[in-house]
């Protein structure tokens, strides 16, 4: 199957309220061009250098999403163009994004990453840490960063009930924050689901799926 065919097969299964992020990390620019020519405009990368190289080479109507772990000293390289940063996992990082956003005269949209998997290798806040950030006085002062949602990754397991439970937990937290009368936030994006689990994620409230290998084929990390 071609990239184009994969994209249309996947898109046919997505409800209209779900945004598809085509995860193109490690893939050559020619693969992204093929997806672009098939109408795809949202791409996800996990390394700032690689994303910036691709941004320079590809049409400027592409939305670039940073889905990987972000080092604070590299935020400046993507601040001029990044559309959404999915993996914000510390208040210090949020402050740095705000600072770099100010330098570019932009408001940079971010998702806060929540740790929902049982593995402790996956980054993210736990519920209490997350809620405490929203209550920081300093949080309200950030003008060049906007928290528009949450992101989470489920445990890498065959157990679909566990995956569903983890996604459901994140959806519950998302709804709780939006409904809170003390937190002044109306988040729209719940980024959850990858090639192996996006259907379960959508059933449990995802509004944005990040799909790589089912579109572009398996990655080769050599
Ligand atoms: C690589 C990656 C994906 C896509 O994974 P696939 O299994 O290839 O769909 C999604 N989200 C994050 C955070 C990733 O790093």
From TrEMBL:
Gene3D superfamilies: Alanine racemase. Pyridoxal 5'-phosphate (PLP)-binding protein, which is involved in PLP homeostasis. This is Pyridoxal phosphate homeostasis protein. Residues 2-219 form the Alanine racemase N-terminal domain. SUPFAM superfamilies: PLP-binding barrel. Keywords: Pyridoxal phosphate. NCBIfam families: YggS family pyridoxal phosphate-dependent enzyme (TIGR00044). CDD domains: PLPDE_III_YBL036c_like (cd00635).
């Amino acid at each position: 199957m071609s990239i184009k065919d994969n994209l249309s097969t996947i898109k046919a299964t997505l409800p209209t309220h779900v945004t598809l992020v085509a995860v193109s990390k490690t893939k050559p620019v020619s693969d992204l061009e093929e997806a672009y020519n098939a109408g795809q405009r949202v791409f996800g990368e996990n390394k700032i250098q690689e994303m910036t190289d691709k941004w320079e080479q590809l049409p400027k109507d592409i939305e670039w999403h940073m889905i990987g772990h972000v080092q604070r000293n590299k935020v400046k390289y993507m601040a001029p163009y990044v559309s959404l940063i999915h993996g914000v996992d510390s208040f210090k990082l949020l402050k740095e994004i705000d600072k770099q956003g100010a330098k570019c005269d932009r408001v940079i949209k971010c998702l806060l990453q929540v740790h929902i998997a049982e593995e402790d290798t996956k980054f993210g806040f736990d519920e209490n840490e997350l809620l405490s950030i929203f209550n920081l006085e300093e949080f309200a002062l950030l003008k060049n960063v906007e928290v528009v949602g949450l992101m989470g990754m489920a445990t890498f397991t065959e157990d679909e009930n566990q995956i569903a439970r983890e996604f459901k937990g994140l959806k519950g937290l998302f709804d709780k924050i939006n409904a809170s009368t003390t937190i002044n936030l109306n988040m729209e994006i719940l980024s959850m689901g990858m090639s192996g689990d996006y259907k379960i994620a959508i059933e449990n409230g995802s509004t944005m799926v990040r799909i790589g290998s089912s579109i572009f084929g398996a990655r080769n990390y050599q």
